[in-house]
Amino acid sequence: MGRVAHVLPRRLQTQAETSYNRTHELRDLQQRYEKEYPGSTSTDEFARQLLQYPYFTAPDLVEYLGVSRRTAYKIVDNLEADGLIEEVTGKEYKAVDVFDILK
pLDDT at residue 95 above 60? Predict the structure, then answer.
């Protein structure tokens, strides 16, 4: 029992440190997105929301942003070209940096 009592606090401490570090990395990422995408375009607006919607489809953007399907696919094209998102399946995308932090 004594060994378990020593291992458990170390595991909890490690988990807490990991969580703390991830929180700060995500905050820094949000600040980077806000700095790199400060404009009022739909692409800029959604780039700043990637932490809220790290996994999405283009039709989701129609709902989230109130844009047309054409604009939604343009946003996807822009963010994919910038390397912020990547296609996961034929229609679903993920925010690369967000998932890199959370893995």
Answer: yes
**Is this prediction's pTM over 0.70?**
yes
Q: Which two tokens stand for residue 99?
A: 């998932």
Q: pLDDT digit string (tens) for 47-67? A: 999 999 999 999 999 999 999
DSSP per-residue string spanning 49-98: TTTT-SEEEHHHHHHHH---HHHHHHHHHHHHHTTSEEESSSSEEEEHHH
Phi-psi region of 66 (alpha: psi -120 to 50; beta: other; left: phi over 0): left
pLDDT band at 94 (very low <50, low <70, confident <90, very high): very high
Which letter, b or e, does each residue of 16-52 get, where b requires 16 or more Cβ atoms within 10 Å of its Cβ? eeeeeeeeeebeebbeebeeebeeeebbbbbbbbbee
Per-residue pLDDT, 97: 97
Q: How far apart are the C-alpha atoms of 28 and 87, rounded to whole Å?
A: 24
